[in-house]
Amino acid sequence: MHPLDGLTPPRKYWALAATMLAMAMTVLETTITNVALPSIARDLGVSPAQAVWIVNTYQLAIVVALLPFSSLGEILGYRRVFGAGLTAFTIASAGCAMSQSFTMLISFRVFQGLGAAAVMSVTPALLRFIYSQKQFGRAIGYNALVVATSSAAGPMIGSLILSVASWPWLFAVNLPIGLFILSIGSRMLPETELAKRPFDALSATLSGLTFGLIVVGVDRLLHDFMTALALLAGGAVAGLALVRRELTQATPLLPLDLLRIRQFAFSVGASVCAFSGQTISYISLPFYFQQILGRSQLEMGMLMVPWPLAVAIAAPVAGRLSESVAPSILCSIGAGLVAGGLVVISLLPTSTPNGWIMACMVLCGTGFGMFQTPNNRVMLTAAPRHRSGGAGGLQATARQFGMALGAALVALAFTAASAHGPTTGLVLAAVFLAAASAVSAARPGTRMSR
């Protein structure tokens, strides 16, 4: 098989199913636990600010490991890294489901995040070998749609599971799905040519330190200011050392060459802002609906449903619109709609009918769908074809770093504002979405080609 030819049916469709199911499961895991945080906090005897780290540890593990696993995929083979990551993710999911303490749950979430990082880092590259060069744009669209709908659908699916089962089942449901994907992937995913170079362990370490120290430093700002400053300074020093090292590498772990492409760089910045805002809102909304507006667990789940449903409808429509309308316009309007919707929700009185709240959630979901699909397509198509692996790795890193940063910031908001933490979180989320709108508006406008 020539790499430009892709796989032939039906193997192509089985391979696509394996990669998209794995992406959906790992992306879902970033938000599916949000609606369960209040009940997990009660069951394990921790504060809301501590419970946020159930989300944050998963996202932090992913963002630390994405770029190293992307490089390992080129060296060891994308299929091998994909299988190893999915195996680790599935085993860790079982551990999360059986956890009897907060420490045990956090530990398994770290391993779950590392497995997810391996899957996310190599999926865009695998798509290059599953689909032909001519059809690669179609594969990018599928991947963008899965990421958009999965990240938004997490709270809805979590609410549905919690309506019939306890929170450990949020993790247990991954077991049969993971085993099914492994059975398909081991036979259907393509073998790829291996890169003949050693793994750059120093760059991988510097990358992990950069992202990890910054996120943890943000979280510690109100708890131990001097320690937080030291962590942030350490992250900045590690980042500077990483950039200086990567500038001398023939095949850099951090694809700095892609950031010289203005459309790509602006899209990365907008993605970090948007996913920070989305994560802050997804964590804050369950607490806001229950603690501020006085809604029940069932009502809270119902109120979370419209957002992902609206994303599922708006994302493919926005993808098609981006072929004739500048993505910068769609992304700017979309992120602005989310920001406006969150501000309105934060100002609603407790007597507001649920129907009006759901209408605001529809507005937010529609806006995020309008933003994410065009933004993802710009990132993956602005890069040259031979740099698709690096583009996919940096796209996932921007998304997950935004989510990890958002989770750290919402923990900071909950600690600082105490009883007003959920409302503060929504306002903070609106600020980040407004920033995403502004960055998108400033991005050079291009029309997407078919």
From TrEMBL:
Where is it localised?
Answer: Cell membrane
- Residue stretches making up the Major facilitator superfamily (MFS) profile domain: 15-447
Where, by residue number, does the polypeptide cross the bilayer?
A: 12-37, 49-69, 81-100, 106-127, 139-161, 167-189, 201-219, 225-243, 264-288, 300-318, 325-348, 354-371, 401-419, 425-442
Protein origin, superkingdom: Bacteria
Q: How does it sit in the membrane?
A: Multi-pass membrane protein
Pfam annotation, one family: MFS_1
Name of the protein in its database record: MFS transporter
Key word Transmembrane helix present: yes
Keywords on record:
Cell membrane, Membrane, Transmembrane, Transmembrane helix, Transport
Q: Which InterPro entries match?
A: MFS, MFS_dom, MFS_trans_sf
